[in-house]
Amino acid sequence: MASPLELLSVEHLLSEEERDLRDAVRQFVDDRVRPGVADWYEDGLDEATARSLAFDAGKLGLLGMHLTGYGCAGTNAVSYGLACMELEAGDSGIRSLVSVQGSLAMFAIWKFGSEEQKQRWLPGMAAGELIGCFGLTEPDFGSNPAGMRTRARRDGDEWVLDGTKMWITNGTIADVAVVWARTSDDGAVRGFLVPAGTPGFSAPKIGKKLSLRASVTSELVLDGVRLPADAVLPEVSGLRGPLSCLNEARFGIVFGALGAARDCLHAALDYASTRDVFDRPLASFQLTQAKLADMALELQKGFLLALHLGRLKDAGTLEPAQISIGKLNNVREALAIARECRTILGANGITLEYPVLRHANNLESVLTYEGTSEVHQLVIGQALTGRAAFS
Ligand code: TGC
Ligand code: FAD
């Protein structure tokens, strides 16, 4: 029985260093994620488990791994993508923990922070001793962050922040929140570092989720939060700041979603080989083989696309619209694969004994966050036609 990603011998497209890194993350997922993930999904991820996962991921060098200096591993982009793929083969929520930390919170500080801000936060975040979150979305402004209502006004030497952020990964457990707010000075969007425990700041957990349950999702409430003048990220002003961070996280998802799809396909292949229907293995029926073949094609095409984008990123030429192509295609196909695999498992497919519906439910969030599929269609549409159709 061939592995779905080996039909095209894609292994040979990776360097030895990339394969070694991937295998180390796969082992981490086998040891640290798979044994507990069904329970974390059923019960919700508690803070202690999230912190210990972050700490172990830090020890392996996975947090901010594609950044340089300040305790970060400084790998290439393809290695970061492969790590996301392995983590998401465990669960999208665990990949989210790592990608929000590294690609959103750490990247914002690394790219746009002062030297003091970098020294204060990045080494601890790379080690997994400190957790960060990234607050862009608001209750009324998700796809259109330009409309945000969170405000930062100057009061002498201080900034005062008021507003609410919604759907923020890691919010409740974060030691520092990167919060994007429109300033009263010039009306530009700026990033602010809000340490946990700052008076007026709270991060209640969002409950009753049916997706991404092995991940902490929160509201951020800013009620007259006073911050010193140096809490602002000095090196960027405007929406370009947060959107640049999204490019990093979206890139990781291009690979990550394929990990979830691969895990589903493995489960479906195993199941079809051992489950007898009408007196023979399910895998010996033509309809089942057609499903498996089509899913293996999409998985391999998605991987070639991800790898191509990774090589472009390592060459320094990757464009946002190209990331949109990868995110739109690979998440959409991963979700279709997860749902199709669920059919192969029949009733067993709806349980947490198997990973497929957990992955499918998670991928519903992945389809929405980091730019909905419609937003990415519009980004690609703009690149094709030269016309923005967002509003
Ligand atoms: P627009 O007027 O086009 O641009 C405003 C400024 O931003 C620049 N820009 C970008 N810069 C870097 N990267 C990009 N991808 C950029 N896209 C635009 C642009 O050049 C301009 O710069 P300047 O200097 O000229 O001012 O912006 P718009 O308001 O029309 O918005 C365009 C749109 C809709 C594509 C954008 O708002 C968007 O991407 N919306 C989706 C929001 C989103 O994805 N939110 C994600 C929140 S974080 C999250 O979901 C984390 S999930 C957890 C996990 O990752 O695991
Ligand atoms: P809306 O923007 O209200 O969209 C609703 C629907 O309208 C969608 O189908 C959308 O595609 C469509 N739509 C919107 N605009 C257009 C248009 N112009 N044309 C056609 N259709 C359109 N955000 C953060 O900032 N930080 C985080 O850490 C974070 N983590 C998240 C974790 C989870 C589990 C989830 C589910 C979300 C998270 N988000 C986070 C928020 C996420 O980025 C937003 O949910 C997403 O950007 C979409 O915003 P929205 O939910 O407000 O949907």
Précis, in short:
The chain is an alpha+beta fold and 391 residues long. The protein has ten helices and nine strands.
Strand elements, count: 9
Q: For the report, how would you describe the main beta sheet? A: 7 strands, mixed
If classified by CATH, what would the architecture of the largest domain be? Up-down Bundle
Q: What shape does the CA trace take?
A: globular
Q: Which fold does the CATH topology of the largest domain refer to?
A: Butyryl-CoA Dehydrogenase, subunit A, domain 3
Approximately how much beta-strand content do the residues carry?
Answer: 5-15%
Bound molecules: 3-thiaglutaryl-CoA, flavin-adenine dinucleotide
Order of secondary-structure elements: HHHHHEEEEEEEHEEHHHH
What is the CATH level 1 assignment of the largest domain?
Mainly Alpha
Q: How far apart are the termini?
A: 50 Å
Tell me what the structure shows.
The protein is an alpha+beta fold and 391 residues long. The protein has three domains: 4-126, Butyryl-Coa Dehydrogenase, subunit A, domain 1, CATH 1.10.540.10; 132-231, Beta Barrel (Butyryl-CoA Dehydrogenase, subunit A, domain 2); 240-385, Butyryl-CoA Dehydrogenase, subunit A, domain 3, CATH 1.20.140.10. It has ten helices and nine strands. The protein has helices at residues 16-43, 47-59, 77-90, 92-112, 115-126, 240-274, 286-315, 320-344, 356-368, 373-385, and strands spanning 132-135, 151-155, 158-169, 176-183, 189-195, 201-202, 217-228, 276-277, 280-281. The strands form two sheets. Strands 1, 2, 3, 4, 5, 6 and 7 form a seven-stranded mixed β-sheet that branches. A two-stranded antiparallel sheet has the order 8-9. Strand 2 and strand 3 form a beta hairpin. The termini are far apart. Bound molecules: 3-thiaglutaryl-CoA and flavin-adenine dinucleotide. Flavin-adenine dinucleotide (FAD) is lined by residues 100, 134-137, 142-143, 167-169, 212, 217, 365, 368-369, 372, 374-375, 390.
